[in-house]
Amino acid sequence: MALNPLTIKKLKRFREIRRGYYSAVLLTVLTLLSLFAELLVNDRAIIVSYQGAWTFPTYADVKLGAEYGLTGTEAVIPVDYRALAARFEGTDDWVLMPPIPWGPYFNDALGGVLKPQAPDFRRDHYLGTDSTGRDVLSRLIYGFRTAIFFAIAFTALTYLIGVSVGCAMGYFGGVFDLLFQRIIEIWSNIPFLYMVIIVFSVIPSAFDIGTRIAILLVIMVLFSWTGLTYYMRTETYKEKARDYTAAAQVLGAGTARVIFRHILPNTIATMMTFVPFTVVSAITAITALDFLGWGLPPPTPSIGELLKQGTANLTTAPWIVTSAFVALVFILAVVTFIGEAIREAFDPRKFTLYR
Amino acid sequence: MTSSSPDFLFGSAARLVLISLLAALGACGGSEQTETAPDADRGAAMRAHMQAHFDSFPSLPPELVEKIERGEISQADVDARVARGEFPKFFQFKTPADLPEGLVWEDGMDLPDLGSPDAKKGGTLYASLADFPRTLRLFGPDANGSFRPWILDDTRMLLGRRHPNDTSIDANGNFRYFPGIAEAWAVDRANRTVFVRINPKARFSDGVPVTSDDMMFSLYFWHQPFIQAPWSNNFFKRNFTHITRYDERTFSMTLPEAKPNMLGRVLELEPLPMHFFADFGEDYVQRYQWEFVPTTGPYVIEPDDLKKGRSVTLTRLDDWWAKDLKFWRNRFNTDRIHLTVIRDTAKTFEAFRKGELTMFGLGLPEYFYEKLPATDPLVADGYVDRAVFYNQIPRPTYGLWINSGRPLLDNREVRVGINYASNWDKVIAEYFRGDYTRMRTTADGYGEFTHPTLHARPFDVEKALEHFAKAGFTNRGPDGVLVNAEGQRLSFTLSTGYESLKDVLTILRQEALKAGLEFRIEVLDATASWKKVQEKQHDIHFSAFNVSPEMYPRYWETYHSVNAYDVPWLPDGSVNPNRKLKPQTNNLQSIANPELDALIEAYQASDDVEEMKRLAFRMEELIYDDGSFVPGFVVPFMRVGYWRWVRWPEDFNVKLATTLTEYFLFWIDDGIREQTLDARRKGEKFPVVDEVYEQYREQ
Which of A62, A147, A333, B137 has a 20 to 30 Å separation from B356 between CA atoms? Predict the structure, then answer.
C-alpha cells in the first residue's frame, strides 16, 4: 500500500518523539504477549511428557487425572499440574510449567489457611496473593488482557459509528443534519451509568462471561459515540466546501467515492489524535464498573476487582492495592504518552500552508 | 463514573443533567410520604369492614383449611356451609363473667431480671445498615428485610417474651415467659386456650393505651389479603380458632391444637394500634409505606430522622411506660440509635476504626485474625475491646437453597450431586480457619428436636459424578463442565446477597468445577437478592434464615407445597402440569412432596412432644433425600470489637442472643468516651480487654 507522503511524514515525526514511540512499542508487545497469556501464566502445564508421549494441555480440552495414570479421586478430576510435576519428580516423566505457574482462579492455601500472602518468590507468587489465595500477578495479566481488548473493541466500534454518522451529517447537511443533531442531543443526555445498571439487572445471569462482556461493550458504545460526531461533522463541512471535493463531484464521482476516497482521508487525522484518549476512557470505565461491582461477575479477573480487594485490605495486604494501582497507572500513562505523541505528530500547524 | 470519560465523550451538559436527575429522584422519594390525615369517611369504612369481618369470619377446623388449600373443597362450598351457620365465629365477644372458673394466672415475675443495675442511660449507638430499608411497614412486601430487628423484632415488646437465660420447660410443656404488654396469663390446656390480661399501664408511643380491641383488630388485620403477606394470612387463619374479648384488658386466644409451648404462640404476638390504622384498606401497602407504626417499645422514628437512602435514627422515649418494669428496666439504654447506610463491608470496618461506628462484628476470620487482631494498636492500647461470646440458639440456616422448580434442578440426582460437589469442608477449614462447624440439617440447635444422627453430605467428587451421571451428565465438555446428551451444560447461577461472603462462593465454584459442575456467581445487594428469591427467580441461592429461639423448628413455611406453587396438585392428587412457582413465600427450594405435606400437617396438628420429634426427624430425612438444601456452616459464637465506652453486663449477653444488640443490655458511658478520646490524644493507654465468654458454649 502506498502511503500518502504526508502520512509518512507524520509517522516519521511520531518515531522521533521517543517517549510516545517506545510507549507504543511497549504496549503493542504487551498486548501481543497477553494473547498468549495461557502459555506464560497458567496452572496448566505447557508440555507434559508421560510415558514417552508429549501432550500440550494449554489449549487442549480439560484433562482428567486418569490420562496421566493418577488413581482414585484424582483420576476423575481435572489435573493439578503442579502436583503432577511434584509426583513425576525422580521418574522419566516430566512437566513443563509456565514461568508463572498460577492460573487466575486457583485458591492456594498457605499452611491450610486461605488468606492474602505477601509476595514470595519461592512459591512463585511474585506479587503475592489476594484474599482467597489467588495469584495477584496472574489476575492482573488476565485482567489487563480483558481490559485492553475491551478498550480496542470499544474504540473501533465507537469510531465506526461516530465517524459514519458525523460524516453523513456533515456531507448531507440540511434536514438530515438538523434531525440527527437533535437526536444526538437527546441521546447523549441519557445517563450511561444508570443504563448499565438497569440493563445488567435485567439480563439473566445465565449468559456466559463472554456474552456479558459483549453486552457491556454494546451499552458503552451506544452511549459514547455521540461525542465524536460533532468533530466529524464540522470537519466534513469544512472539507466539503473545498475545491477538490467540488472537482471530484464535477468529475462524476458518486457520494460514496467522494466520502470514502476524498473527504475521509483528509479528516481522519483529527480523529486519530483522539484514539488513545478513547482507549484510556474505556479502560477507566471498565475498571470503575468492576470496582463498583457492576462489571464482570466474580470470579473473572479484573483490575477493578483487584483494586476493590486492595482497598478492602489496605493495611493487611498492601501488595494487592499496590500491584493493581501501579499496573493501572502504568497502562494509562503509556496510552497517554502515545496519545500525546500522536497529537504532536499529527499537529497540522507543523505542516500547514496557511501560516 | 461520568468523570472517568473525557469531555468529548461525555459532555459537561450530561453531567449537569445527571445531577439534576439525582435531585429529581430524591424529590420523588420524598413525595412518596403521603399525608395520612385521618379521613372520617375512610375511618368509618374501615370500622364497617372490620365489623363485617368479625360478624362473618368463621372458625374453620384446620383439616378444612388444608383441604381448601389443596383444592379438594371449593371456597364456594365452604361459603355455603358458613352461611348455613355450620361453624362458630372466629371473633367472639363475651363478658368478664364468662371467664372460666379456676384459671391459674401466672406472671413470670419469679424469673431473674435481665438488665444490669450498673447500666446508665444516655449516649448514642452508631451502627450501620447494608442497605436502606424499603419500607417502614411491619407487614407486606419488603417488610421482611434486614431492617426488621430495628423496628420490629428487637425493639417491640410483645405480650410476653421468652426468658433468654432460663431455657427450661415448665410442667405444662411451655418455655418460661416474662411479661411484656401482658400483665398475667393463664393456660387452659384442655380447651387449648390462653387467657391474657393486658397491663393497664401499657401505652403505645403516641400515648394511647393498649386494649383488647387492638388485639381483635390485629387478627382482622392479619387476615386481610390486601396486606400482601401470605405468611401472616395463613398463620393467623390456620393456627388460631378463636379470639375472645372479655373486657378492655382481657382476652383469650384458642388454638386448634394444644401444641408444646402453646403459651408462646399467643404471648409472642404484639397488638397493633387500631387507632393508627384508621385509614386501613385496600391501599395499605402504598399508604403505610413510610409510616412509623406506634410502638409499645422504647424506640420511635421521628419523620425527620428518616433520611432516604442515607440514615435512620431511632430515639428513646423518655417516658416509656415500661422503663421501670422488671425485665425491661436497665435495658434499651442509649438515647439514640443512629443507623447509617454503608453498603460496603470494608468501608463499614474503616468507619468503625475511625470511631464513627460503635461496634463491629468480627465473625469473619479475616477480621478477627488480620484486620483487628489482638496486636492491633487500637486493641493493644485498650481503646477498642474485643469479645467472643458463645451462644446457644437455633442456628441460622446458612447453606445453598436449590430451587427445584427450575429446569435441571428439578432432577433429584442433580441436586444430590450438587450436595456432594459443594466443598464446605474446605471453606470451613481453610477460609473460616476451622472456627465454624458444618451444619448438619435444616434445623440445627433445637436440642432434642434436632435430628440426632443425620449429617450433611461431605465433599466427594466420585459420588457427585455418579449422581450427575444418573441424571444424564456423563461427559465433560472442553472446559471440564459436564454436558448431557442434549448438549446442556451442568451450569447454574449461584446468587447471594452477602457481599462479605462472596469469597466463599468463589471457593465453592472452583471446587465444584472438579466435579464438572459450574456455579455462575451473582453477588447482589441485600435487598435485591431477597427480592429475587422471594420472586423465586433464583437457581441456587446462598442465604440464611434467622430463626427465633423456638422450642421446635417450623416446617410449613419452608417446605409445604402450598408455599411452593400456586396450585401444586390437581384435585385427584396428581401433579398440576400448569402450576406456577408461588412468590413471596419462604419455600425457597420449591419443595412439593405429598408425603412431606402430610407429615407437616401431622406435625402441626400434634400436641405430643415425642410424636413431634419423630415427625421432625422423618421430615429432616425426607428433606435430606430431596437434596434441595446444602447445609453450610454454623457459627457457634458472636465475635465483636467495640469502643471501650460500650459497657456490658458481667456475663456479657444472654444465652439466646442471636445478635449483640438484640436484648439491648449494653450501655454507652459518655464519661468513659470523653476519657478515652482524651487519653488517645495524649497517647495514654488502657489495659487490654480481649475476653472469651464460654459459659453457654455447646460441647
Answer: B137
- Residues B439, B544 contacting (CB under 8 angstroms): no
Q: What is the DSSP letter of B664?
A: -
Alpha helices for chain A (secondary structure H): 5-16, 18-35, 37-40, 73-76, 81-88, 136-172, 174-188, 192-202, 209-222, 226-240, 243-250, 255-257, 264-292, 303-312, 318-345
Rounded CA gap, B618 and B626, in Å? Answer: 12
Residue B427 DSSP symbol: I
Q: Which domain holds residue A63?
A: 43-97
Nearest to B316 by CA among B33, B119, B34, B30: B119
Asked if A166 and A230 sit in the same domain, the reply is: yes
Over 50: is that where the pLDDT of A294 sits? yes
CA angle A182/A186/A189 to nearest 5° reads: 140
Last residue of a domain, one of B590, B610, B634: B634
| Same-domain pairing of A67 and A151 | no
The answer to whether residue A50 sits within a structural domain is yes
> Which of A63, A74, A76, A135 should we substitute to test contact with B (largest number of B Cβ atoms within 10 Å)?
A76
Is residue B56 one of the residues assigned to a domain?
no
Q: Which residues contact residue B685 at a Cβ distance below 8 angstroms, ignoring those fewer than 6 apart?
A: B381, B382, B679
Pick from B6, B18, B514: CB nearest A78 = B514
Contacts of A77 in chain B (CB under 8 A): 461, 514-515
Contact B1, A192 (CB under 8 A): yes
**Domain end residue (candidates: B634, B652, B669):** B634
> A217 and A76 in one domain?
no
Interface TM-score (ipTM) > 0.90: no
Q: Are residues A29 and A178 in the same domain?
A: yes
Cell of A91: 521418574
What is the chain A residue with the closest CA to B364? A115
Task: Note whether B460 and B546 are same-domain residues.
Answer: yes
Residues spanned by the domain of B679: 344-391+636-693
Contact A224 B431 (CB under 8 A): no
Q: Are B562 and B568 in contact (CB under 8 A)?
A: yes
Is residue A221 located within the same domain as residue A242?
Answer: yes
B293 close to B272: Cβ distance less than 8 angstroms? yes
Q: Which amino acid is at A102?
A: W
How many CB atoms are located within 10 Å of the residue B63 CB? 11
Examine the pLDDT at B187 and tell me if it is beyond 50. yes
Report if residue A178 sits inside a domain.
Answer: yes
Euclidean distance between CA atoms A255 and A259, whole angstroms:
6
What are B311's three cell numbers?
A: 440514615
Same domain, B670 and B597: no
Residues of A whose CB is below 8 A from B21: 191
Inter-chain contact B10–A192, Cβ cutoff 8 Å?
yes
Q: In terms of domains, do A226 and A336 share one?
A: yes
A169 and A294 inside one domain: yes
- On whether both B627 and B681 belong to a single domain, the answer is no
Please name the amino acid found at residue B265. Answer: R
pLDDT tens, residue by residue, A199-242? 876 776 667 778 888 888 888 898 888 888 988 999 899 888 88
- Nearest by CB: A132 against B21, B344, B506: B506
Q: Is the pLDDT at A141 greater than 70, yes or no?
A: yes
CB B262 within 8 Å of CB B254 = no
Per-residue pLDDT band at B31 (split at 50, 70, 90): very low
- The answer to whether the beta carbons of residues B30 and B308 sit under 8 Å apart is yes
Q: How many domains does chain B have?
A: 3
B291 plus B156 within the same structural domain: yes
- Per the structure, the count of domains in chain A is 2
Task: Tell me, yes or no, whether B51 lies in a domain.
Answer: no
Exposed, middle or buried by CB within 10 Å (0-12, 13-18, 19+), for B125? Answer: buried
Give how far Cα B66 sits from Cα of A346, B62, B511, B584, Å.
81, 6, 43, 19
